[in-house]
Amino acid sequence: MQIYNTTVARLTYRGLLGRRRALLLFGLPGLLLVVAGAVRLLAGRDEATAVGMLGGFALATVVPLVGVIVGTGATGPEIDDGSIVYLLAKPLSRPGIVLTKLAVAAGTTIAFAAVPTYLAGLLLAGNGGRIAVAFGAAAAVASVAYAALFLFLGIVTRHAVVVGLVYALVWEGVVGSFIPGAKALSVQQWALALAQETAAAGTVTSEVGLPLASALLAVLTATATWFAVQRLRSLTLAGEA
Amino acid sequence: MPQPETTAPAAPAAAPPPGSAPDVIHNIGYRHYDGPRLGRAYVRRSLFAQSLRGAYGLGRSARSKVLPMILVGVMCAPALVVVAVAVATKMNKLPLEYTGYAIYLQAVIGLYVASQAPQAVSTDLRFRTVTLYFSRPIERFDYVAAKYAALSAAVFLLNAVPLLILYVGALLAKMPIGAQTLGLAKGLVGTALMSLLLSGLGLVVAAATPRRGFGVAGIIALFTFSYAAVGTVQSIALMQDRTPITPWLGLLSPTTLLDGVQVWLLDVASAHAQEFAPTGAAVGAVGVLLLLGTVAGCFGLLMRRYRKVGLS
Fold first, then answer.
1. Mean pLDDT of chain B
2. Where exactly are the transmembrane stretches of this chain (chain A) (predicted)?
3. Hey, CA dihedral for A167, A170, A176, A178, is it positive or negative?
4. Looking at the complex, does the CB of residue A61 fall below 8 Å from at least one CB of chain B?
5. How far apart are CA B176 and CA B189, in angstroms?
6. Run of H or E including B67
7. What are the backbone dihedrals phi and psi of residue B21, each rounded to the nearest 5 degrees, phi first?
8. What mean pLDDT do residues B182-195 have?
C-alpha cells in the first residue's frame, strides 16, 4: 500500500490554494498578525495580554476556522462536483488517498494557522515565558486534530462546512463557556493542556491534564482518519438540488 | 389553428434530375406572438419570490429544509423562554431590549446568512443557470436587486418573527403598550438595517466563488473573525485606558457597527458592551454613513460582479 501519493497531494494542494481560495487562507492569518501588531502598539509587550489574545483569539478562532476551510476543502469540493470518481477509479488504495489528503491538510493548516500563531506570540510577548513556543506547539497539535476531524466530516456530509463551524464556534465557543463539562471535550482545551505544560508555570491554564489530553487528541485523530477511510470505501454520490 | 398551406409538393429524397421543380420553402403556418408580454418587473418578482422561498428551503429538497428550519427554531426559542419567564414572574418590562436580540443571537444569524447566501448565488454560478437567467429579458440590475432583496427579506423575517413573539408576549403580560410598541418599532428598524448589511456582505463573498463550501466559510470567517478581533482589541484598549478609541474600533466589524448605529440613531442601550458604545455625534454619524455606504458598496460590487458571467 502506498501511503503518500505525490499526484494526489499535488491535486489537493491545487484544490486548496488555487485561484481565490488562497486569498481567504492568507487573509485570516494576515489579519491575526495585523491585530497582534495593533495590540502590541496599544499595550506594549505584556504576557497576560499575549496569553489572552493567543488563547481567546488565535487558538479559539483562527485555528478552528482555518482547520474547517482546509479540512473540508481537501475533499468536499471533489465530492461536491463528482470529480472524486475519477480519483477513486484509479488503482490507488483508499487509505492511501485519505492519508495523503490528511498529510496535505495538516501541513496546510499548520502553515496557515500554527506558524502565524507562533509569529503573533513573538510579536506580542517576545520570548518571555516561552509563550510563543507554547501556543505555536498547541496550535500545531490542534491543527492536525482539526484537519483529521474536518476531513472526515467533508467525506461524511455535504454540509461539512456548516457542521464544522457549528462545532468550532457553537460547541467550543458558546456551550463550553456555559457548561463546564463540555470544556473537557474540546480540541481547544486539549491543545491548551500542551501549552500549559510548555509555557512558564501559571501563565496558561487548561481544563484537562496533559496525559489525558494527548491521549484524547491521538484517539480523535486516529478515529476520524479510520472512519474517513471506511466512508471512502463505500462512497455513493447522490444528487441533491 | 390555421391549416398549413403547402405551396409545392415535397421534393424527392434523391437528387432531383435536371429540369425538375425548384426547391421551395414551405409555409407551415408558424405565427408570431404579439400579445402582451410580462416583462422585467414580472421576472424580478418571480426571482424574488423563488429566492425568498429557497432561503427557507421551500421548493427545495427535504434535506435543504433542515438547516433553515433548525435556525428559525433556535432564533425563536429564546424569545419564547423570555416571554414565559416574563409572564410567569409578572415583570413590568422585558429583560432585554428589542434592538439587542439580533446582537445576542448574532452567531445564529451569521450562520443563517452563511448557509443561505451561497445557496442563492453560488449554485446559479456552478450549474451555469445564470446564463439562462440572462437569456430572458432582464438586466443585471434586476437579477442583483431581486437576489439582494430576497436574502434581506429572509434575514429580516428570521429576526422579526422572534421580535413579534416578544411583543405579543409583552402585551399578554400587560406591559405598557406605548413603550412596547415604540421598542418594537426601533427593533424592526434595527433589523432592517442589519438584514441589508449582513446579506449584502454575504452575497458579495458568495458571488465570488462557485463553490458553496468556500462561500460558507468565507462569510462566517468575515463575521466572526472581525467580531472577535474588534472585541479583543477593544477590551485591551479598555485595560490600557485608551477608552476614546474604543467606539471607533467598533466601526470595524458588522455586528459592532450595527450596535453602535442602533445606540446612536435609535437611542437604546448597547447590547455589545455599554462602555464601547459611541458617545459623540462624530462616531455615530460616521457609523451611520459607513453602514449605508457598505450596503451601497455591496450592491455596486454585485453589479460589477455580474458584468461578466464567468466562473473565474
1. 85
2. 21-43, 49-70, 102-125, 131-153, 160-179, 208-229
3. negative
4. yes
5. 20
6. helix B62-88
7. -65, 140
8. 94
